[in-house]
Amino acid sequence: MMSALSMQSRVAAYLDDRRRLGFSLKTTGAYLMSLAHYADRIGHNGPLNSEIILSWAQSETASMKPTTWAKRLSNIRRFLNHCAQTDGGTSVPDGNIFGRLRGRPTPHIYTESEIVELLAAAKRLPAPRSFRSATFETFFGLLAATGLRLSEALCLRCSDVDVAAGQLTVRQGKLGKTRLVPLHPTACEAMSQYLTLRQRVPMSQDSHFFVSESGAAISRSVPQKVFAHLRADLGWRSRGSCPAPRIHDLRHSFICRRVMLWHKHGTDIDNAMLALSTYVGHVSVTYTYWYLTGVPELMDVAGQMFERFASESGENGNE
Question: How many Å apart are CA 69 and CA 255, to the nearest integer?
Answer without folding.
Answer: 32
